[in-house]
C-alpha cells in the first residue's frame, strides 16, 4: 500500500459516495470518466416527503455491491487494476456516510490499495473536471452548490489545497425548501421538478415573496449566507390566507413566485461573491441545478456581470461517485499522501478539510 | 480459512481456520466507533494471522440482530471485502456465535442469549442444545422485546456485551463442514426505520 509506487500521472480511482440518498460509484482514470453509476433510494422517500436517514442508510447497504459490480463492468476494468479508492467522509447524513466509509476501507484492505477520504462539497467542485463539454475552469472560481442537503457558496483557489466557505444556509437547504413548498401545494416529492413544471405556467411576479438575508442589516453579518425557512413560512402563510378567504390557490403563480425568490437570492449572492472577490468564474453544482429558472437566471446574471459560467451535466451535478473519484485522482496527481485507515464519517466536515487524513 | 466480522455489538474481526482454530482476533468494544475502527481491525488481524485476502475461502459475517448503524457497517465491510477478494460472504446470526462458544466450552441444556437493542429493549435468541456435530439449535428468535417480555430462560441465560468474531468464524467453519445452511444474507434489524410523518401544519393561527 505504499504511496511511493502510486501512478500519479493518470491514476485509476474508484469513488464511493453515500452522503445522502444516492449510492454513487464512479471510476475515473486521471481526468477521464469511465463510469458514473448511481442507485437512488428517492422513491422510498417519496411517501415521507423528504429523505429519511435510516431508510437511506439501509438502501445504501443493499445497493452498494450491485453498484460496485456494475460500475466496474461499465468501466471495463477489474478491481485489481485500481490505483486507489476514494470515499466521501463528510459532510452528510452520518449513518449513510458510515456505510460508504466501512465498505471503502474494507475494499481498500482486500485489494491492498491506498484510500483517500474526501470532502463531499469539494467533490461537487471537482465534478467540473469531468465535464467533457469544455475546458474545466481554472482557479480561482466561485462555486454555488445547491441541493436537498446543502446550499453553500465557496471560493476555490485550489481544488486540492485551498477552499474557503464564504457562506451557507443557516436553516433549510434550498432543495429542502422546494420539497416543503411542494408539499404544502399538494405536489409530489421530490418538489423541485414539480415546482419547475408548474412554475413554467405561472407568473413569477404575481407574489413578492421575501429574499432571505438580503436586508442591509442581514447583509452585514450574513453577506453570503442563505435562509429559506422564512420564505417557506411566508409561502405557507400566503396560501393559508387564500384558503381562509375561500379563494382558489393560484398554484402556478405561487410556484413561479417561490421559484423566482429562490433563484434570485441564490444568484444575487453568488454574483456578489464573484464581484467582491474579483473572480470572474462561477461554477454551479448540486441537484437544484436541474431547476430551469436557476439555470436561466444564472446565465443572465453571469453574462451581465461579465462572469464565465459553468454548469456540468446533471449526472455530474447531483450526488455521484465520479466526482469523489476525481477529487481522489486530483489529490493523487498533486502528490498528496493517502489517508490512514482511521478516519471516520464526519457529518459536519468543513470544506477547508478537503482530504481527511 | 475465513475472515470473520461481527459488528452487532462492538466491532470484532478474526481470521480462523478449521484445523488451526482462531489464528488472530481483535475487537473494539466501543459501540459507537464501528466505521472508524473496522478498516484497521481487518488489516491488523490479517497481518497478525500472516494471511492475505487470496488465502481465504470466504468472509463470515454476523448479520445481527444489532443496532442499525453499527450492524450495517460490519456487513458493508464484509460484503465489500468479499467483493474485493473475489470470495463469497457466509452470513450467520450473531447470537448463534455466542451460543456456539458456550456449548463448545462444555455447557449443555437450554440457553437464552440477550443483547442490548437500545431504547430499553433487548434482542434475544433461545437455544435447546447442539446437533451431533456441535451446531447450536435455535428454538426461538432472534426477537426484539422489552426486558420483561423476553421469554423466561428455562436453563442458562447470557446477557452478552460482545460477540466474538472468532466464535462466529469457527461456527461458520463448522456449518460449512457439516453442509448445514447459513443465515439469510440480510441484516437482522428487527425494527422498522424511524419515520416521523409530520402532517401539513398551519403556520398561521
Ligand atoms: Zn451533494
Automatic annotation (TrEMBL), chain A:
Reaction(s) catalysed (UniProt annotation): L-threonylcarbamoyladenylate + adenosine(37) in tRNA = N(6)-L-threonylcarbamoyladenosine(37) in tRNA + AMP + H(+)
Q: Name one GO molecular function term.
A: tRNA N(6)-L-threonylcarbamoyladenine synthase activity
Record-annotated residues binding substrate?
145-149, 179, 192, 196, 291
Chain ranges of the Gcp-like domain: 33-325
The enzyme's main class, written as a single word, is transferase
Q: What is its EC number?
A: 2.3.1.234
A Pfam family it matches:
TsaD
Name of the protein in question: tRNA N6-adenosine threonylcarbamoyltransferase
This chain's source organism reads: Mycetocola miduiensis
The top of its lineage is: Bacteria, Bacillati, Actinomycetota, Actinomycetes, Micrococcales
Automatic annotation (TrEMBL), chain B:
Species in which this protein is naturally found? Mycetocola miduiensis
> Residue limits of the Gcp-like domain?
14-127
Sorted alphabetically, the Gene Ontology cellular component annotations on this record are: cytosol
NCBIfam families in the record? T6A_YeaZ
Q: Record's superkingdom?
A: Bacteria
What name has this protein been given in UniProt?
A: tRNA threonylcarbamoyl adenosine modification protein YeaZ
Q: Name one GO biological process term.
A: tRNA threonylcarbamoyladenosine modification
Q: Which InterPro entries match?
A: ATPase_NBD, Gcp-like_dom, T6A_TsaB
